[in-house]
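Lest this sound abstract, we think one record worth quoting, the chain in one-letter code, the fold tokenised, each line plainly labelled:

>
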Amino acid sequence: MTGLETDTVTLRDAMNQCAVVVLVAIGLALPATTSAQPGVVKIAGTPKPLTLSTADVAEMPRTSITATAHRVTGTFEGVSVRDLLTRAGVPSGQALRGAALATSVIVTGADGYRVAFGLAEFDADFTDRVAILADRFDGAPLPANSAPFRLVLSGEKRPTRWVRQVISIELVPAIQ
């Protein structure tokens, strides 16, 4: 072997070792998958904050939406987001007015994906559209990439505001 070949082998070995260290560091930095965590959704920023398990949600009154996402049509089943907000003490109907109309609802998935809505988007006095926290699709539990909960909205042209693996629903008042 020439001196150049020895340097090349040493450099290659060093690069391989760095790659292993980087992959291990990335693996340690990644959040645990939701399959390893109990299914819980937190509803915060409300008069009565809630932490609901999959069992809690399964026992609540059910709502269904038939919708299409990514060229697949099916029926999602779950709990109305409005019902969840009512349980958390959030005003609705005629009581939803004034500063409360400037409240944002931030829905967050386990991967950090977040979507913001206006509070009125979840109220039947303001819209005919329905939003549910789904836990079932076509009669079966949600697939692993969406479970345990998925936000599904009727009437969306694109499902980009549908949040998979929902971990929190937080109300945030407008900054004054």
